[in-house]
Amino acid sequence: MELQADPDGRLDVPEAVVHCLLKQQFPHLAELPIRCVDPPGWDNRSFRLGEELLLRLPSAERYVAQVAKEIQWLPFLADRLSVSVPVVLVSGRAGCGYPWTWSIRRWIEGEAAHPGIINDRTALASQLAEFSVELWSLSTAGVPAPGQHNFHRGGSLAEYDGEVRAALEALSGSMDVSAAEQLWQAALASGAESAARWVHGDLYPGNILLHDGRLTAVIDWGGLAAGDPACDMSIAWTLLDPPARCCFRNECGADAGLWLRGAAWTLWKALITLADPAAQKDAQDRSRALIETILREAD
């Protein structure tokens, strides 16, 4: 079966291919009900297998390295973190027209964090800070440094300087780009910390699971690395309100440089989304509002 790719080169994987892979490689699982996870995800195509399992297939070759990293490092994290993290049970190989390694892990119950289910954002901010401090306390021995495998999350902001400059030029007629440029330049000049710390790499609301409004799990660790955790500070801007942001910053102990670089990571993503003519209007509206918030509050 020949799989179709979208304009970004990410494969569409139908349920028939998932069933074929299971039948060939894990026949004892092939009779379990299969249903696509909604939303389907970006780096991976995800499917529920029955009530207890989750099957994840990288959507493009650039995401395949994440499978091996998660196999190696998620058990280490699961034994040491207070929140739940997914652990890979088995990995599969290419077949049935699908070209790469894939994995099966246990399904973790919970609701992705969004404002409608958060009863107390300041309490959640405190829980996120506790998670961050706990993660940063772990040994980074052997953990890969940031690089192409995780799109330089935890590395230098300079990797995305060209994208930011291009976005600012494209947006020069529709917003005050000078303030954004000043913040970006200051963040570049701040430099990263000398001591590498654990980095999740994609700490956004969809990867934070809540139960009764409380943080219970952090998922999607394919971007993990040991480096500058500034990129993980983005959660303060994408999920929390001003009082909760203040709580998060204070309780995780983010100094001025780390906080500034975190704002810049968030600014990068918002700018390139706002400048992308193919982006959906609601995404652009959220990005514009986020840029305004960052420029108003970041210091």
Describe this structure in words.
It is a single chain. The chain has 299 residues and is of the alpha+beta class. The chain has 2 domains: 15-106, Phosphorylase Kinase, domain 1; 111-297, Aminoglycoside 3'-phosphotransferase, Chain: A, domain 2 (Alpha-Beta Complex). It contains 9 helices and 10 strands. It has a 5-stranded antiparallel β-sheet with strand order 1-2-3-5-4, sandwiched between helices. Strands 6-8-9 form a 3-stranded antiparallel β-sheet, with helices on one face. Strand 8 (208-211) and strand 9 form a beta hairpin. Helix 3 (121-136) runs parallel beside helix 7 (242-252), helix 4 packs antiparallel against helix 5 (177-190) and helix 8 runs antiparallel to helix 9 (281-297). The longest helix is centred in the last third of the chain and has 20 residues, at 256-275.
Structure keywords:
alpha+beta; five-stranded antiparallel sheet; three-stranded antiparallel sheet
**Which superfamily, in CATH terms, is the homologous superfamily of the largest domain?**
Aminoglycoside phosphotransferase (APH), C-terminal lobe
Give, in spatial order, the strands making up the sheet with the most strands: 1-2-3-5-4
CATH class of the largest domain: Alpha Beta
Please give the count of helices.
Answer: 9
- What general form does the structure show? globular
Q: What gyration radius follows from the Cα positions, in whole Å?
A: 20 Å
CATH architecture of the largest domain: Alpha-Beta Complex
Count of individual beta strands: 10
Oligomer: single chain
Order of helices and strands: HEEEHEEEHHHEEEEHHHH
Q: What is the count of structural domains?
A: 2
Counting helices, strands and paired strands, the structural category is alpha+beta
Distance, first to last CA: 53 Å
Mean pLDDT equals 95
* Beta-strand content: 5-15%
What percentage of residues falls in helices of 4 or more residues?
25-40%
- Biggest sheet, in brief? 5 strands, antiparallel
Any idea of the CATH topology of the largest domain? Answer: Aminoglycoside 3'-phosphotransferase, Chain: A, domain 2
Low-pLDDT sequence parts: none
